[in-house]
Amino acid sequence: GQSLEQPSEVTAVEGAIVQINCTYQTSGFYGLSWYQQHDGGAPTFLSYNGLDGLEETGRFSSFLSRSDSYGYLLLQELQMKDSASYFCAVRDGGSQGNLIFGKGTKLSVKP
Amino acid sequence: DSGVTQTPKHLITATGQRVTLRCSPRSGDLSVYWYQQSLDQGLQFLIQYYNGEERAKGNILERFSAQQFPDLHSELNLSSLELGDSALYFCASSSPGGADTQYFGPGTRLTVL
């Protein structure tokens, strides 16, 4: 089966950089996705890594190492609005596309 | 705004009742996924439809069922409701070949009293 591990909570200050790690075990790997969810809101797609390396989208970057079954989300120049939960997710290898999500990392950005 | 719509936004009902949650995917998306999110279980996949056909099933209870209609909207039916069914129910959609990028609706918050 699939499982993903990520820290449950991270705290950082405005303007800082934070890295949220994710390790996974899957029976078929298509890539690693990251989603952001504010309290009471819906998950929103942030980034996807299908190949090893770094993908950059503005202040957010995501990295994947398939040999290490590991990825991370890097958030730079943190802003208060980045306070949210961040989920890594992999596609269920035995299906057509449903995602298996990690338990989520709650990021708190302090002034 | 993801382009995915869900109704109703909130639903309060009693144990033993039946409810129907509705979802309309983004224009052009053929896949619809249903997820349940509760505090202790995180985001759990329930069921997926693609162009009207069931494609994958997760840990969906037998009391729950879903379907996708010819206009691609989907409905999730929850019956014989129990207190533990109280949760946020999200619908998501993706474009053909784009399963790794899913667009979530605003969710339906179900409270079973």
Task: Describe this entry's structure for a reader.
The complex is a heterodimer of chains A (111) and B (113). With 111 residues, chain A is mostly beta strands. Helices cover 0% and strands 56% of the residues of chain A. In chain B, strands 2, 4, 5, 6, 9, 10 and 11 form a 7-stranded mixed sheet that branches. In chain B, strands 1-3-8-7 form a 4-stranded antiparallel sheet, with no helix packed on it. The mean pLDDT of chain B is 94. In chain B, a hairpin with a 2-residue loop joins strand 5 (42-50) and strand 6 (53-57). Chain B has 113 residues and is an all-beta fold.
Keywords, separated by commas or semicolons:
heterodimer, A: 111 residues, mainly beta, 11 strands, B: 113 residues, four-stranded antiparallel sheet
What is the topological layout?
The complex is a heterodimer of chains A (111) and B (113).
Chain A: E1 3-5, E2 9-13, E3 18-25, E4 32-37, E5 44-49, E6 53-57, E7 60-65, E8 70-75, E9 84-91, E10 99-101, E11 105-110
Chain B: E1 5-7, E2 10-13, E3 19-24, E4 31-38, E5 42-50, E6 53-57, E7 64-68, E8 74-78, E9 87-94, E10 103-104, E11 108-112
